[in-house]
Amino acid sequence: MATLASGKLSEMFEDFLKSVTDRSGSHVYRDKISQLVSNEGKSLVVDFGDLLKYNNDLANRVLLEPDSSLASFKIAAFETLRSENALYADRVKRELVVRLRGISDLVPLRLVDTSYIDKMIAVSGMVVRTSELRPLMTEAAWVCPSGHLTYEQQDDLALKKPAKCELCGEARNFELDKRHSRFIDFQVFRIQELPEELPPGQLPQFFDVNVEGDIVNTARPGDRVVLTGVVRAVPDYALGQVRTRLFRSQIDCNQVEVKGKEPMTVLVTKEDEELIRKIAGAPDAYDRLVSSIAPVILGHQSEKEAILLLLAGGNATVLPDGTKLRGDINALFVGDPGTGKSEMLKFASQVAPRGLYASGRGTTAAGLSAAVIREKNVLMLEAGVVVLADQGIACIDEFEKMKPEDRTALHEMMEQHTVTIAKGGIYATLNARTAILAACNPVLGRYNPFQNLIENIGTLPIPLLTRFDLIFVFRDQPTPAEDERLATHILAVHARKSYASPPPIEFALLKKYLAYAKRIAPDLTKEAMGRLKDYYLQLRREGGTDESIPPTPRTLEALIRIATARARVLLRNEVTEEDALAAIALMNRMVEEVLTDTTTKKTDFGIQLGKPVGETKNLRAAMEVFKSLEGTEKKPVERKMFKEELVKARFSDEDAEKMIRTMFREGMVYESKPGFIRRLGS
pTM higher than 0.85, yes or no? Predict the structure, then answer.
């Protein structure tokens, strides 16, 4: 490419700014420059497509020689601004920046190598970390012993001193004058490959991005961005050497555009839309969609239906006072090992337009929500799984193996859909509009049908459990017919190296279908509201007795979300009576499977609250027996005698032992000396 003098280059850029017009004949960039004056702006954003149309060679020069080209572009912008308003142009001359957007050829982060050093590229990725905002010195004012000021441009991390004073020639003993020095805002982003673009088994590629001027704080952790910048190679001072052969890459950002607020990231063409509409219009559309979820797993239709509805989600609503009603559905799978829970979670994370998978064993609270870390003496805010999966789903396997303090991080996120960080002097609130699909194994390895849910899952906190809209149990029950059917299915998968039978909707189309469905926001009809209201009131009446605990309003909200998600899956603009009845049927299956007390055989929502009525009554009866044994003196009671009295009352030997252990766990009694127990507070 022929070399152009900087003056000639500036003239070409100035002609571009003054000559480009839109369809109506308006001068695009002269109008933008006029707006800079009225808005007191300092950045002129130029569309790269306009530059390509004006002069292809000039556009390519900007990409190949960005430093000299942008310097000439800035001069052209300044001269154009000066012709509009000379006073304002002189005031913002140093801060004026030309920013480029719309470079269509995005370079994948994984392919950014040494051939791009000192060249301008456009990349897309996810912001996983942002630093605090700090002042960056661009021009240092130095004072000589005689008091004269000398200005020195700064373009490196190490401060540069002038060779000598411009007035008296002094070459030593300079002091920095911060008051007369010039600063700009500075921040560091870290962008990472998008999860859906990450090759299996590979570490995600990431880059630190230097952001300066008026584009700082434009993106937060979890946002998806497209940014334009210049790739730099900088010495890796982390090795502890001032001079080193090893460098690291970073990007000096020129322009950043946040795309993370858009819920759909899957491209749906017109042909795809026609096919999606055709599928939704079929009479058996819903059954076909359910059967297309995790086709490698045989059966578990209710669980597959729960995943389908979770992927679609309900309507998120923001009330006039700012109160948010979540639309995302949370689901929990509990069950025996080897029943396909993990495979279903993996499938859900891959088919979701935006999904992440994490395992409870290797995930900390910071890895789930967010964390404040210090790196090179800079505080950084780093996003976790639920923040990175904003407006998508987070699949958390081995939920029971997480530490209690790590699970606690989910409480706020699952209801308010935010993650609040207050650490290291930083207070921040990040969006986490994420549906949670979790799976856990029972305490003793296999699910015991003669114990209630909370006894099977053990240490899960009750407030967290109540935030799950749907809970289903996977049980491995040996039956000859079912075992033969499952064995045939597994052998067929291995023999064909594919599905035993093709799914009704292939994976790629299902992903587009779900992305398209999330555009729709169905409204509740009177018929649907009537059905849901009647069912909820019926559950309240049945639960308002001494034999069970009634459901809370959260159950009604869950029913609304499920019915809305079903209407959305079928691409309907209204939630019909059919959708409401389907939501009630799915809730009934959960109630029969999970929320039926094993003692009274009655529906009891107290099971999800941690303690069914039957257990509460038994604890009360056991405490009465204990009080009678300790007498008015409140003396210690021999454990053996207490158990015998419980057996005489109405407990079996096994239930009596279990009741004593429960009283210890609940903190009702304690062992005062070997073999003797006392009541707490006595």
Answer: no
